[in-house]
Amino acid sequence: MAYQRILTPRIYTDNINWMLSLGQMVTGDITLSGLSIASGYSLLSMFDMKPANLQTITANGISTQGIIKIDTGLTTDITQDANFIAILGHNLKSADVKFKLQTDDDTDFGTAQSPALTEVVNIGGDVSSGDYATPAYNGWSLFTFTQASDNAFIRLIIDAETSNYDADIKIGALLLGEYIDLPHSPDLSIKKQIIYDGVKKQNSTGGQTYSNATWLKSPDWVTHAYGGIQIGANPLTKSGRTHLDMNFSYLADTDVFPAIMYNYNYLTAGNDIVSNLVFRTHGGHFPFLFQFDKDTTTVEDAFMYCRLAKEPTFTQVANQTWNSDISLIEEI
């Protein structure tokens, strides 16, 4: 059990939407071959960062391999430093799907590299180079990888685990990006609140209270957003959304700012809060995955899909040393 304990946090931000917003990528850089999107659904909607907006790939009863290919638009190894993929909202277990990752600097993948996959959540354990991941349940999956070269093009290869797929494949959101670990735990003055901003109350002239709820909880991602907790056919989920305020003291300036603020190579290859959190989410425009502790992967209690509730501030407290506040609001 994690008890929502915040130790050394890890932040997973998406590169694709950031690069699309800057014109570094275009929508045609994301393609699907082999399998096809079902009528009424869209491949690009898998990249809208809305896990409950499930998209369907026609697959039931067939055995054809499917390939989702991404042209990152980054042609030098130093700038293409993605190191994780998250598949949020999927039925890969029910559909009998296995998958693996390949990278290459050539669009035809003539010299494809197959990085090993390190399980964070639900890929069936760590995966050796070239082998397939096999999620143990529906819901969501997250893995990290290392590929420092030959990495301009990335593709996710989908296959049936046995002879044919058992159902059409459903995927809510695909995130490809870089995670960073904050250098240490936040200060003890963490503020956490479960808020219900979808509940509106009114008082009558007689003193009675009437309320209306436009929402009470996060939508389910196939079975449940954080791992498929169920009793019988009814998934149990918490209600409300978490608002989290943290302060981090005595951060080295190298952990806060890029080496050169207006140099594209440093912004894409940086491992600092401004480059990897503030810029890549545009200050809260894009959501991201927050892991309370980089070493705790309890799926029901150790993650939050969220946005920046406000832009962080940075206060210099000593030579090359800064304090910062980070405020997060759970995504609904």
Query: What is the overall number of helices?
Result: 4
Q: Roughly how much helix do the residues carry, as a percent range?
A: under 10%
* Beta content: 35-45%
Stretches where pLDDT is under 50 for at least 5 consecutive residues are 225-233
- Order of helices and strands, N to C? EHEEEEEEEEEEEEEEEEHHHEEEE
Class derived from helix and strand content: mainly beta
Q: Report the strand count.
A: 21
- What is the CA-based Rg, rounded? 21 Å
CA-CA gap between termini:
24 Å
Largest sheet: 13 strands, antiparallel
- Shape, principal axes of CA atoms: globular
- Please tell me the overall pLDDT: 91
Features:
332 residues, mainly beta, 13-stranded antiparallel sheet, 7% helix, 37% strand
Characterize the structure shown:
The chain is mostly beta strands and 332 residues long. It has 4 helices and 21 strands. It has helices at residues 16-22, 253-256, 264-269, 273-279, and strands at 10-14, 30-33, 36-37, 55-58, 66-71, 84-90, 97-104, 118-121, 139-144, 153-160, 169-181, 191-195, 199-203, 209-213, 230-231, 234-235, 241-252, 288-291, 303-308, 314-318, 321-330. The strands form 4 sheets. Strands 1, 3, 4, 6, 8, 9, 11, 12, 17, 18, 19, 20 and 21 form a 13-stranded antiparallel beta sheet that branches. Strands 2-5-10-7 form a 4-stranded antiparallel beta sheet, with no helix packed on it. A hairpin with a 2-residue loop joins strand 15 (230-231) and strand 16. Residues 225-233 have low confidence and may be disordered.
